[in-house]
Design goal:
421 residues, alpha/beta, FAD/NAD(P)-binding domain, D-Amino Acid Oxidase, Chain A, domain 2, 2 domains, nine-stranded mixed β-sheet, seven-stranded mixed β-sheet, 11 helices, 22 strands, 30% helix, binds flavin-adenine dinucleotide
Length: 421
């Protein structure tokens, strides 16, 4: 069976990999000249199984209110005359109900655990070469109220079979000695030893190379304009090539992996995907003094910033802006990431040569990605991975492949049968 995968980011390329290895004939289409050139380009690098709690949780409304109107706040809601944005925000609030948060956390934890195992197996099977290291993730707490919850959070992670250790300030320093120079030391932390960090772009480039060598066709520089459908069936995908020529790409089945743009492509088919683009920033800085730089991946829970050493580079990412598809960078937000590096690891990096980037996280109100069958006969979804698209990539793709092969996917996760709640 020929499957056309729409989008060549983390979701699309991993989907192509698992489908190909399950015996499907696979092609991939993307508007960019290569893979992982949009949101998967320079993310925080964390495989963060230890962070299954969704953004929408009982504490979120209060935190968001506190941050309202503050330009440099970790989360910024910029109201627009866009019903899609307001509907998404209302659904986000609904997901903050305690029982919904518990349900979403359990689903994300199950998929994340499975995904990390799939990534490990893929590395064993392929000996894929990309920058990565498994040294765990250390979550740092600076706010007394949040630090007081460390033990409860560790217990909660244990209930989801995720290994984590509650740490006092001294233990945080023992795990990551480079924190000794920090101007504002943490009150405590949670260390998840099985988590890891890796360069998603390098991973996807290497995987694409393997797939091309195995005969998978990649149509790059090819913009998807519309999905032709009749009687509940996708008949083909209308595309525009770089030289302006238009074509139709046909397949037996289609998988939508177009990130934040997914809702726009299927709205004309009557499918309403609850995905909204949430802009985030990253800076990548060369490490000039390895003794002062971290070796462990870190999450600053107060400022919602993640930091991953990726070889000779330190990648720091964070902040969330709900402002539609606007990709113009906010220099203040980029500066705040550089400032964080300077106060956390003074002298470790060379900020003058920092590379700044921003991307749109394809975010659902529940933080659960949409994986499974659409309301159309031969259209599937693997999209909406929000802030965890690297963590969940391999597991989501392997699970979708199981579904498309007529098998029951391994993780206990609400896969789609064509309806969304
Ligand atoms: C600042 C930041 C930090 C992050 N940190 C982490 C982290 O540490 N750990 C983690 O797990 N996740 C992280 N994420 C999230 C993760 O990067 C995303 O969830 C993931 O990249 C989404 O992958 P995707 O394949 O769904 O989307 P994309 O990577 O955006 O891929 C979609 C593809 O579809 C193509 N496309 C779209 N529309 C069309 C069209 N009309 N025609 C043709 N092609 C089209 C695009 O060109 C693109 O290549 C972070 C995200 C951001 C922004």
């Amino acid at each position: 069976m020929h499957v056309l995968v729409l989008g060549a980011g983390l979701a699309g390329v991993t989907t192509a990999w698992y489908l190909k290895h399950a015996g499907f004939d696979v092609s991939v289409v993307d508007r960019q000249p290569g893979p992982a050139m949009e949101t998967s380009f320079a993310n925080g690098g964390q495989i963060s199984v230890s962070h299954p709690e969704p953004w929408a949780n009982p504490g979120a409304p209060g935190t968001i209110l506190r941050w309202l109107g503050k330009d440099a706040a970790p989360l910024r809601f910029i109201p627009r005359a866009d019903w899609h944005q307001w509907l998404w925000a209302a659904r986000f609030m609904r997901e903050c109900l305690p029982w919904r948060t518990r349900r979403n956390t359990a689903a994300i934890a199950a998929l994340a655990r499975y995904s990390r195992a799939c990534l490990e197996q893929l590395r064993i099977d392929t000996a894929l070469h990309y920058t990565h290291a498994r040294r765990g993730i250390l979550h740092l707490f600076f706010d007394p109220a949040e630090a007081a919850r460390i033990r409860d959070r560790v217990d909660e992670l244990a209930r989801h079979a995720i290994a984590a250790e509650a740490c006092d300030a001294a233990r945080c320093l023992a795990i990551e000695p480079a924190l000794a120079d920090m101007t504002r030391p943490p009150l405590g932390g949670i260390y998840a030893p099985d988590d890891e960090a890796g360069d998603a772009k390098e991973f996807i480039d290497a995987l694409t190379g393997r797939l091309q060598a195995e005969g998978v066709r990649f149509h790059f520089d090819t913009r998807i304009d519309a999905l032709d459908h009749r009687g509940g069936l996708i008949e083909g995908v209308r595309v525009t090539l770089l030289d302006g020529r238009t074509e139709r790409l046909d397949a037996s089945s289609y998988v939508l992996c177009t990130g934040s743009y997914s809702p726009l492509l299927v709205a004309p088919l009557g499918e309403r995907l609850p995905i909204y683009p949430v802009k985030g920033y990253s800076v990548s800085v060369p490490i000039i003094d390895p003794a002062r730089a971290p070796r462990v991946s870190l999450t600053d829970e107060a400022r919602r910033i993640v930091c991953s050493p990726l070889g000779h580079t330190l990648r720091v990412a964070g902040t969330a802006e709900l402002n539609g598809y606007d990709l113009s960078p906010n220099p203040r937000r980029q500066a705040s990431l550089l400032e964080w590096i300077d106060t956390t690891f003074p002298g470790a990096t060379d900020p003058a040569t920092a590379q700044a980037w921003c991307g749109l996280r394809p975010t659902t109100p529940s933080n659960r990605p949409l994986i499974g069958k659409s309301g159309l006969v031969n259209l599937y979804y693997n999209t909406g991975h929000g802030s965890l698209g690297w963590t969940l990539a391999c597991g989501s793709a392997a699970a979708l492949t199981a579904l498309m092969s007529g098998h029951r996917p391994e993780p206990d996760f609400p896969f789609l049968g064509g309806r969304f709640d």
